[in-house]
Amino acid sequence: MAGRLTGVMSAVVIALGAVTSSAVAAATSTDESQIRQVVAAELAALRALDPTAYAQNFCAEYRDAYEAWVQRNITPPPFEDLEGANPKRLTSVLRTNFPTVSDTAIQAFVDAATEGDREAYHQAWRGILREEFSHYSYRVRQVHVTGDQAEVTVQATLGKASGTVPWQFLRESGDWTDCTAPPVTPDSAPPSLKGEASQGLLGEIGDVRAAG
Q1: Interval 105-126: pLDDT, tens
Q2: 10 pLDDT exceeds 80?
Q3: Helix (H), strand (E) at residue 28
Q4: Please, are residues 130 and 107 in contact by the beta-carbon 8 Å criterion?
Q5: SS3 assignment, position 50
Q6: Is the model's pTM score more than 0.85?
Q7: Are strands 161-172 and 149-158 parallel, antiparallel or unpaired?
Q8: Can you tell me the distance from the alpha carbon of 139 to that of 76, in angstroms, rounded to the nearest whole number?
Q9: Most buried residue, 61, 72, 148, 199, by most Cβ within 10 Å?
Q10: What is the full DSSP assignment across 109-140?
Q11: How far apart are alpha carbons 23 and 58 in whole angstroms?
């Protein structure tokens, strides 16, 4: 700023320029810090299997949609669809869809399904998801703020799979919120990657009753 002006005002301009630059840097740092906190809160809510807490990180336009979406993703396939399933088939499907989950967690679900234990079935499903989400990680790679909007580049990782995903943020009432549009096919994608990687049992339960 001082380079654009001359004369007696130079010293004043330099001083004001220094103050202004510091203020801008502080604001940018605060924005990025708040955005990182939102990203971390999303992951924490996923790991807790808490749709309401997850949705609170989103802008008003998408909040209800994300709460419903996560609820669908953490709800197990209908008990009646898997009750009495072939253990080997079901185990194979589970291992394919949840490669990071332990054999113990998978076996608990298989036992509950094949033995017809509805309560254990629901508990075991949540156990699988908790293990699955415990292997997720987010890393904010870049934050670009323009006024009350920001584009955030997030690296989402699950085991050996990793992808960089652009998220859109919006400042509402002074607070940054995730305003990334919900996936087009929510039932086939995990919430954490916002539609970048498909998984789940819903597309593959048709043959778990087959012999073999």
Answers
A1: 999 999 999 999 999 999 999 9
A2: no
A3: helix 10-47
A4: no
A5: coil
A6: no
A7: antiparallel
A8: 29
A9: 199
A10: HHHHHHHT-HHHHHHHHHHHHHHHHHTEEEEE
A11: 27
User: How many Å apart are CA 162 and CA 185, to the nearest integer?
Assistant: 20
CB-based contact 138:37 (threshold 8 Å): no
Residue 25 corresponds to which amino acid? Answer: A
Domain ranges of the chain: 29-137
pLDDT tens sequence across 11-69: 323 222 333 333 333 336 799 999 999 999 999 999 999 999 999 999 999 999 999 99
Q: How far apart are CA 81 and CA 126, in angstroms?
A: 17
- Cβ proximity of 9 and 124 under 8 Å: no
Residue burial 143-175, b: 16+ Cβ < 10 Å; e: rest = bebeeeebebebebebeeeeeebebebbbeeee
**Distant-in-sequence, close-in-space partners of 11: CB < 8 Å, separation ≥ 6:** none
Q: Which single residue is written with the structure tokens 């510091």?
A: 22
Q: Is 57 exposed, middle or buried (0-12, 13-18, 19+ CB in 10 A)?
A: buried
